[in-house]
């Protein structure tokens, strides 16, 4: 049965993770050497595994139409030529979709193709009721990935070797080198397809494969073995840090007299997560990095966060903010820092619409941003969120809402409820646990602040809303989105409570 070392390795790897028979595998095959060898190995091992097998091939439409079609045809023909034949599904990504998605994610073509490919894998697995998805990652891929991450300043997590199984995905070739794969294919008298992009040195992985790996092999004969030992050490260190972080979290929570100090990231509105600044600052920088990495994962930030950003965030001490305690937890995640100039106008805050300007500005405050990651300190809390979510929210600053009857209304910060009482109509944010503001006479208009807005004081005079915001140290995002309520063409109130500030309501004479 196991007439080649590759078959033996695949069988052992599968036996280590498969505890029940009659499983249904969805095997991804591009027609390249790795996936072709895996397909043939599975077909030969199928009787011994008591499994069902379906093959899927994805045409990404990023090469010439002729080449892409030939790859799909090769896989389909291979599946039909086997005895017994294997069911094969060919999926095609529309032309230009990969490029569009790469631009949307602000990532490379290869990254976008992979994301779309895996999305198709998972959708197809659900449709055919496959138990596991099989990919052809091999040991040579692992070494190339580690070298790439090593010189990119990757995290310790990215420097760990790939496991045979990750969730619903399995990698039975992960312990097999590419030379053994090609040896197996020659033994099987099987051809395979060569992706023309594999020879293109514009791709970093190809440069590593074509130039760095041969140079290492020529200089350090046993570099694979040495790298394996280094990765094992990194794995041990990471395991220790993970245990230390868990212990620190438990100790911090046990020492708290209230639930205000959280040692784990908690979800907030608009995609943010927050935790206690005191806990963050109590940690060794290595554990702070681990905590920030966890926050990024929780936010779904997929791209590699630059180490310099994480180190700056991890090493920066908490700053005192006497006003920080008054702010509500949920909307704080979208505030600028107290250390920014308090007199900055709304027009000046428009710089926040440019991510590059946002990052540049943040160096002068206790805010750091890079790519999709933005972290802010405010009072007793640290907030981590996706920069895209912040900017998308800020760009809604020109909203205008007319309320003519009771009901629920959408606005940038969520939902406003207008309800009737014996005293009149009241308005409250969906997450506000108070009665909100009121009573009002409908209709009322709700919008963001505009230049020149004035509101009546208890003395009877008028005061610019801008000056009130300056005195209260209201941040730029709050200045843009805080609801101003107009009744009978006069500013009747502004709803500061929705963003953790005071409400200002003009009582009727």
Describe this structure in words.
The chain is α+β, with helices and mostly antiparallel strands. The protein has three domains: 200 residues, HUPs (Rossmann fold, 3-Layer(aba) Sandwich); 136 residues, no CATH class; 106 residues, no CATH class. A six-stranded mixed β-sheet has the order 3-2-1-4-6-5, with helices on both faces. A hairpin with a 2-residue loop joins strand 14 and strand 15. The longest helix has 33 residues. The N and C termini lie far apart (94 Å). The relative contact order is 0.07.
Layout of helices and strands:
Elements: H1 5-17, E1 24-28, H2 33-49, E2 52-59, H3 65-81, E3 88-92, H4 97-105, H5 109-128, E4 132-134, H6 139-152, E5 165-166, E6 169-170, H7 178-187, H8 204-219, H9 223-255, E7 266-267, E8 273-276, H10 277-282, H11 285-299, H12 307-315, H13 329-332, H14 355-362, E9 367-370, E10 373-378, E11 381-386, H15 387-394, E12 400-403, E13 407-411, E14 414-421, E15 424-429, E16 437-440, E17 444-447, E18 454-456, E19 462-464, H16 465-471, H17 476-481, E20 484-487, E21 490-494, E22 504-505
Parallel strand pairs: 1-2, 1-4, 2-3, 4-6
Antiparallel strand pairs: 5-6, 7-8, 8-11, 9-10, 10-11, 12-17, 13-14, 14-15, 15-16, 17-20, 18-19, 20-21, 21-22
Helix pairs in contact: 1-2, 2-7, 4-5, 6-8, 9-11, 11-12
What features would you highlight for this structure?
509 residues; Rossmann fold; 22 strands
